[in-house]
Each structure stands twice: as structure tokens, then as C-alpha cells.
Design goal:
The chain is of the alpha/beta class and 182 residues long. Helices cover 37% and strands 15% of the residues.
Length: 182
């Protein structure tokens, strides 16, 4: 059983990213267990915390350590990733030499209600994940534009082409996870 963490960049309740994450979970094959990883409760990372580690950091790091792979679903904030997501990446990679993200295969899904589809967030996140030594699905790149037009009131994707595209991304992710299985 592969354990996949779903990290949602938006901390807004029932955000577009959260809804997309739920749709992606449904596309995972049998043998994959998904868990949404809470990031909104993490205090801002401060190196002083390396000496007096908050319990919430310890719990978060242990949760991430137990994962086999990670799916990041994020909006774009000012042409980059949301602060909560960057903070979670920082918390998990510190103190120096204790990177809990190390080696975990990842899929990046960015979204936006605009036509730009979170392009900036997607590529900034790729840069950070490269430094954290996370192999990332390269193709297909997943940018979901006009997300508000693709989700029904129940949060389900209403466009079958989008579902098919996301399935191809999940299939590429599963193939990447299999390459890194211990």
C-alpha cells in the first residue's frame, strides 16, 4: 500500500485546490491510500524553533516522513506559491540535514480561476522541490485554468476531458512512485 499525502496550498475551507485534490484522490488506483496533510496550523518557520521545537512541527514532520509520495495542489498567489505552502516546505526541511521531503516522488497541480492557471506557482514550486530532492512528474505538466467553471456545486469536475487529463497525470505520478519504491 502506497501512502500519498495531499498537500493543498490554499488554507481556505473548500478551496478550489481542495476540491481538485479530492477529485485527484478518486483517480488513484487500488493500493494507494491518500491523506490530506494539514498545513494551516503551522506557525511561521523560525530557525529559533530548531532549538525549541513546537509539537505541531514534530507531528507534521512525522506525518510527512511516513508518506511514500506527495501530490501538491495549489493556487497562485502573486505569481508564486501561497505563504502557507512555502512555510510547510520550510518546516519539513529543517533543521538543516533533517529534510522529511527528501526523495519523495511528487505531482504538482496548479489552478486558477484565470487563464494563467497558476503557471508561476507551478514553476516556483518545482524550483523548491528540486532543492528538497523530490523527483517531480515532468509530463504532463498540470495547469488547470478557469477552475471555477470546471467544478460542479458538489465539487466534482464536470468536464470529462479535464478528468481524462488529470487521470493521465495521476498515471504518470503512479509510474514515478513505482520507480522509487523501496
Amino acid at each position: 500500500m502506497a501512502k500519498v499525502g495531499i498537500v493543498v496550498g490554499s488554507i481556505r475551507n473548500n478551496s478550489f485546490s481542495e476540491q481538485l485534490g479530492k477529485n485527484i484522490v478518486e483517480l488513484l488506483p487500488e493500493g494507494y491510500e491518500a491523506e490530506f496533510i494539514e498545513i494551516g496550523n503551522l506557525p511561521l518557520y523560525n530557525q529559533d524553533s530548531d532549538q525549541d521545537i513546537p509539537e505541531v512541527y514534530t507531528s507534521f514532520r512525522e506525518t510527512v516522513k511516513a508518506l511514500d509520495a506527495v501530490v501538491f495542489v495549489t493556487p497562485e498567489h502573486n505569481r508564486s506559491v501561497p505563504a502557507a505552502l512555502k512555510n510547510a516546505l520550510d518546516v519539513g526541511s529543517r533543521p538543516y540535514g533533517s529534510n522529511v521531503w527528501d526523495g519523495k516522488p511528487a505531482l504538482i497541480v496548479s489552478q486558477s480561476p484565470s487563464n494563467l492557471s497558476g503557471f508561476g506557482a507551478n514553476h516556483h514550486l518545482r524550483q523548491v522541490l528540486a532543492f528538497l530532492n523530490m523527483p517531480v512528474v515532468q509530463q504532463p505538466e498540470v495547469y488547470i485554468a478557469n477552475v471555477h467553471e470546471l467544478l460542479g456545486e458538489d465539487g466534482k469536475i464536470t468536464n470529462e476531458d479535464t478528468v481524462g487529463f488529470l487521470q493521465s497525470a495521476v498515471d504518470a505520478f503512479v509510474a514515478l512512485v513505482k520507480r522509487y519504491e523501496a
